[in-house]
Design goal:
InterPro entries: Cellulose_Degrad_GH3, Fn3-like, GH, Glyco_hydro_3_AS, Glyco_hydro_3_C, Glyco_hydro_3_C_sf, Glyco_hydro_3_N, Glyco_hydro_3_N_sf. By secondary structure, the chain is an alpha/beta fold. It has three domains: 400 residues, TIM Barrel (Alpha-Beta Barrel), CATH 3.20.20; 221 residues, Rossmann fold (3-Layer(aba) Sandwich); 120 residues, Sandwich (Immunoglobulin-like), CATH 2.60.40. The chain contains 20 helices and 28 strands. Strands 11-8-7-6-5-4-1-12 form an eight-stranded parallel beta sheet. A six-stranded mixed beta sheet has the order 13-18-17-16-14-15, with helices on both faces. A four-stranded antiparallel beta sheet has the order 22-21-26-27, with no helix packed on it.
């Protein structure tokens, strides 16, 4: 997508913002209101008066002749024409994205646009809505008062019809929806959360999944999906770890590109395609103390080499929107950081879409961050920094209007932001096709084909952590199986945060999956035993009793991000956590639920220990949103199957693995620590190597990239060739992997690089290639990876990108800690960028 750099009548430069202050660490020079130039304000007021006069004349043109409604004209011309006809109030309003679930009314008479929408449109001239179709305890939308998929289509059509027929310019709304692991709406398919998606190590599969999410969102009127989340998660105490792709920038970048391609296709505007919004820009997942939204302490080099690259990859894949993070970096809030938004995102990466705030993050400047004196100052800071759209309607709105009218924000800056949004609306075809086909919805949402894909993603996400003495797969000849634990038969504990209410029959739990997998004559006994957190209804004795009578025991433990109607929520949607609350829900993960330990909560460990003491074969299945402490289980339980939050078909996928119908091939995208005291424990920490603690070694319990299989693989025949040219090089890495076991299976081959000597400190090893491949038993597969200067670059002492000459060790194997093959690459010269 290209945007003209010369647009009459104001010569707007939409694609690249006005020259920005750049450089580290002063990413934005904060200018107090008291020091703003009076001369500038007077000039801006004069300019605004002239422009408003010109616009008033343009408003007299008959609507049917307006060029912006002519689909045969270039989008740049249409945007230019429409902006020329808008009042300053309409421009400011166009940048406001309000909460959408109160913008429709549903009763016995039908579904229609609400009075609240009409008031917001007439008074605020809004341009976007967020989460119109969302349902969950925060929005107070249930299966009863929320919208079925066909009702959702009726609601969005009613909203758009009001915009088209009852507003002066007929500008449709852009409807943004939460869509990280399925559209967060009733009836949509629920896939594994992002941490599970990353565990597949299969970007092609995730792209296929994203296409389905886009198809379902588009069918009911959503044209913008929030996702992927590209946060680099290195502190599992952080409540939103489940929403991330893990701890490695290369893996996150691959997954992020796949999601963007799946959402958007080759270009914005295709049928069944939606705009992707990248979250959260940037470094949101490593707050001090694990406190969600807290301050972040990262240096320039770490930011450039670890946290920004996944976003860069997704931007270059064509992402149409980026969301700023709540946190500050080196004292500068991301929502007022001109260096991030103007210099890096737009100037260096060429981003031409629009930037949106996270909910209420603009207000956070004069709130929690205390970097703005008042709401008007916060609006000025964000707009000047390059933030286009306000998610809330209260950050910009009257505050931005006042800043424009007083000359603090000039007309060019405002128009540039409006143009970025309008361009995307035109590209989506909203002006030509604002409505959706209500009759086609059942063929596109929650179909059997989509359910099958949800099961496939869940299967590939399952990680076999331990399997002593071939405990798994279980024999179908077992006569009696005990299924125990709080996550064995709880649909919402299986789905993760950002999930809509579900009818019970839609979600397949582990208990249901096991009962469906065994022969009719097998007896399956179920006892919950305990809750995730609440210890008032524990019944371990009953669990032990059924375990003693069983031939095998499956214990399903972990965590929960299941929101309930008893929990209170902040204005941002994050849960309000009260450590002393009497009513204890299962929820210990999900937005707002940060942890100070990573232990299994409640009586879960005691339940596992007493069941294991029966002497019966025990299999532990873990369902959770973050890596939890599995030390005791790793030492005492013979088999552990790890599933994160596996989505609506998770129970079937887990049963497929337990009984050998699917050979697990998932790999960890984040290390599992032995103790909170080890944190951070990510595999690619900077040199030097970690030394042991007094109490334990420094290694994680299970490392990044780890996962077992029911078969065996051997690596051989490593060949490395190098061709160096003046501007770049090509290193080709070849090797063979053979399946030497008794089953077909998936191997995830991983290529790591060690920069042996460098001008700045580099990681102990870095993932630079991976491939998931099914290999038949007795067969062998050749793998080929290519490395270029881009793959080995670093941010040098001179603050420039370069790939330095010297030796690089190549490590190849099935995880970050298991090296099957080792080779060397020797570059004879430096390569610059």
């Amino acid at each position: 997508m290209k945007i003209s750099r010369k647009v009459e009548p104001w010569n707007l430069k939409w694609a690249t913002s006005r020259p920005s202050r750049s450089g580290w660490p002063t990413m934005r020079d904060h200018i107090p209101c008291s020091n703003r130039s009076v001369v500038k304000i007077v000039k801006m007021k004069i300019k605004s008066i002239v422009l408003w006069g010109a616009m008033s004349l343009a408003l007299q043109v008959p609507a049917q002749t307006l060029p912006y409604k002519n689909s045969r004209l270039p989008i740049e011309d249409r945007v230019n024409d429409l902006i020329g006809r808008m009042t300053v109030e309409e421009k400011v309003g166009q940048l406001s994205k309000l909460l959408g679930w109160e913008m429709y009314e549903k009763d016995a008479k039908g579904i229609r646009a609400s009075q609240k929408l009409k008031d917001a449109v007439q008074q605020q001239h809004i341009g976007l809505l967020w989460a119109t179709l969302r349902a969950d305890p925060w929005t107070q939308k249930t299966l009863d008062n929320g919208l079925t998929p066909q009702e959702a289509a009726k609601a969005t059509n009613a909203i758009q019809r009001y915009m088209v027929d009852s507003t002066r310019l007929g500008i449709p709304l852009l409807l943004s929806e939460e869509a990280p692991h399925g559209h967060m709406a009733i009836g949509a398919t629920v896939f594994p959360t992002a941490i599970g998606q990353a565990s597949t190590w299969n970007p092609e599969l995730i792209e296929e999944m994203a296409r389905v999410i886009a198809r379902e969102t588009y069918a009911v009127g959503g044209k913008n999906g929030y996702g992927p989340v590209l946060d680099l998660a290195r502190d599992p105490r952080w409540s939103r770890t489940e929403e991330s792709y893990g701890e490695d920038p290369y893996l996150i970048g691959r997954m992020g590109r796949a999601m963007v391609r799946g959402f958007q296709g080759d270009q914005i505007g295709g049928t069944d395609k939606i705009i992707s919004t990248l979250k959260h820009f940037v470094a949101y997942a490593v707050p001090e103390g694990g406190h969600n939204g807290g301050s972040v302490s990262v240096g320039e080099r770490s930011l450039l080499q670890n946290f920004l690259p996944p976003f860069e990859q997704a931007v270059k894949a064509g992402a149409g929107s980026v969301m700023t993070a709540y946190n500050s970096i080196d004292g500068i809030p991301c929502s007022s950081n001109s260096w991030l938004l103007n210099e890096v995102l737009r100037k260096q990466w060429g981003f031409t879409g629009f930037v949106v705030s996270d909910l209420l993050s603009i207000s956070g400047l004069n709130g929690g961050h205390s970097t703005a004196m008042d709401a008007r100052d916060a609006a000025w800071q964000s707009m000047e920094a390059g933030l286009d759209v306000d998610l809330s309607g209260s950050g910009y709105g009257k505050n931005l209007l006042a800043a424009v009218q007083e000359g603090l924000i000039d007309q060019e800056t405002l128009d540039r932001a409006v143009a970025r949004l309008l361009y995307q609306k035109f590209a989506l075809g909203l002006f030509e096709h604002p409505y959706v086909d209500e009759q086609a919805v059942p063929k596109k949402v929650g179909t059997a084909e989509h359910r099958a894909l949800a099961r496939k993603v869940a299967q590939q996400a399952v990680i076999l952590l331990k399997n002593d003495n071939q405990t798994l797969p279980l024999r179908r000849s077992l006569k009696r199986i005990a299924v125990i634990g709080p996550n064995a038969d709880n649909i919402y504990n299986q789905l993760g945060d950002y999930t809509a209410p579900q009818p019970e029959e839609k979600v397949k739990t582990v208990l249901e999956g096991i009962r469906a997998a065994v022969p009719k004559g097998t007896q399956v006994d179920y006892v919950k035993g305990c809750a995730i957190r609440d210890t008032t209804a524990t019944d371990i004795a009953a669990a032990v009793q059924v375990a003693e009578q069983a031939d095998a025991v499956i214990v399903v433990l972990g965590g929960s991000s299941a929101r309930d109607f008893k929990t209170s929520y902040q204005a941002t949607g994050a849960a309000t956590v009260d450590s002393g609350a009497k009513a204890v829900s299962d929820m210990e993960s999900g937005e707002g639920f940060d942890r100070s330990t990573l232990d299994l909560m409640g009586d879960q460990l005691r339940l596992l220990q007493q069941v294991q003491a029966t002497g019966k074969p025990v299999v532990l299945v873990t369902i959770m949103g973050r890596p939890l402490n599995l030390n005791w289980a790793a030492a005492h339980v013979p088999a552990i199957v790890h599933a994160w939050y596996p989505g609506q078909e998770g129970g079937m996928a887990i049963a497929d693995v337990l009984f050998g119908d699917y050979n697990p091939g998932g790999r960890l995208p984040i290390s599992i620590a032995k103790s909170v005291g080890q944190l951070p424990v990510h595999y690619n920490h900077n040199k030097p190597k970690h030394h042991d603690y007094v109490e334990s070694d420094a290694k994680p319990l299970y490392p990044f990239g780890y996962g077992l299989s029911y078969t065996n693989f051997t690596y051989s025949n490593l060949q490395i060739s190098l061709s160096e040219q003046s501007e770049d090089f090509l290193a080709t890495v070849r090797f063979t992997v053979a399946n030497t076991g008794g089953r077909d299976g998936d191997e995830v081959v991983q290529l790591y690089v060690v920069d042996e000597v460098s001008s700045v400190v580099t990681p102990v090893r870095q993932l630079k290639g991976f491939k998931r491949q099914t290999i038949k038993r007795g067969a062998a597969q050749e793998f080929v990876f290519e490395l270029r200067k881009e793959d080995l670059k670093l941010w040098g002492v001179d603050r420039r990108w370069k790939t330095e000459k010297g030796a690089f060790t190549l490590l190849i194997g099935p995880s970050s800690e298991q090296v099957a093959l080792r080779g060397e690459l020797l570059l004879s010269k430096d390569y610059t960028f």
